[in-house]
Amino acid sequence: MNAQQNELLTRSGPGTPCGALLRRYWQPVALVDEFDPAIDPRMKDRPVKAVRVMGQDLVLFREDSGRWGLVDRDCPHRGADLAYGRHEGDGLRCPFHGWKFDAAGRCLETPAEPVGSRLCERVRQRSYTLVERSGVLFAWLGEPGTEPPFPSYDCFAAPGTHTFAYKGMWQCNWLQAFEVGIDPAHTSFLHRYLQDASLESVGDNAAGRQFRSASLGEVEGQQWPMSRIMREFHKPEISFEAEPWGYCIMTLRPMTDELTHVRVTHEIFPQTFCIPLSPTLTITQWHVPVDDARTFWFAFFTSYGAAVDKDAMRNQRAPFIPPPLYIPKTGRHNDWGFNVEEQRTRTYLGMGEDDINVHDQWAVESMGAVQDRTREHLGTTDKVIMANRRQLLAAIEAVQSGGTAPFAADPSRAAEQVGGPDTCDGIAPAGAWSTWWREQARLRHQQAPWTGKSKRTVPA
Ligand code: FES
Ligand SMILES: [Fe+2]
Known about the structure:
There is one protein chain. This protein is an alpha+beta fold. The protein contains 13 helices and 18 strands. The chain has helices at 3-10, 17-22, 119-122, 154-157, 174-179, 199-202, 226-232, 310-317, 340-345, 357-365, 383-400, 411-414, 433-447, and strands at 27-31, 48-53, 56-62, 68-72, 86-87, 92-93, 100-101, 107-109, 130-133, 136-139, 163-170, 237-243, 246-254, 259-268, 272-278, 281-291, 294-303, 424-429. The strands form four sheets. Strands 11, 12, 13, 14, 15, 16, 17 and 18 form an eight-stranded antiparallel β-sheet that branches. The site of fe (ii) ion has 6 residues, from loops.
């Protein structure tokens, strides 16, 4: 990849070609939890929050009526910062000269102007459409009125009882943050435990301990933790197929003549992956540029089994990534918790056994704010990363020449009821892995307590 291409793919501010592409997709901008006074007491009397997305500074607030507003942060009068505005229930008032704006960006008052002034009618603060889905506020930052239908993936089709959302900031560019999620080889190394924990001690959805869970299926009547399979079979055979949302990524780890481990994950274009966490839980994770050197990941946990315990899931994560800033406690400033003794005796990396998010965080942050891709040497296992970059370059080019952005941004495609994507992590009969995993996914979907309400037809 040359320097010019690297620039093109990594810069997302207003006016950039990649920014223009990303602005064709709904972008998550905040958790609804961020406005919960039990989580952030400041929100009790003043539900106002500054947010930065793709280099744009915005203010997010909620009127007493419950209506959400997302507006540009600089006051249209003389540019003072509306994040310090007075929350008045039905709008936000700039403390400099008292101009007041509602959630739609309408100017309600310009109190210093002479009686009878109609200045208000000529002033409008730019506001952005918001929709709330599965505990997250998504914004439309593109051309007003060109919003495609909201995608219908399982993480949005599942009811609130079966989804949980969390976010965290990484100090690096969005693309490298995303690329770790479409790199199926790294799990055998970066997340390797030198010993396995007992499956009973892990449970189904222990935060940060994804690969400690059991893989679906058995070897000679025994369940295996994913961590053991990843460690013992570290030369994956990776393939991928085009799907209505991006790529289905199939990773095989042949175990015996009869058995192969199969892990099915997805790339949802342009910035999201979907992976299995346990037989009944998936993570669908967006990577949203804050600016070119920082990224917020927004993760949706979706249960196809029992209802999720949101408080428990939040309490598991908050000690590592505390609200209201959602900046991880470990990072470059403390060597991501690097422990030489642990690296020698317990884990491949040496950055803790309890929160594997730190492993990925190190991988993507240690490259530097924006990875210099002119210096890398890609291998066979990087094939999805390469395909995705080609896909991104083509989509940027299409948008630049006035065409349609692909997948969910294409109204004709997004209108299809696209469910799933279906994931799997299991031990399959070697010759029949492809039908085996689809059958497992079909059963999981069929048995989920909420899929009766979904319109999706599951392919047999
Ligand atoms: S700068 Fe906001 S009211 Fe004057
Ligand atoms: Fe990872």
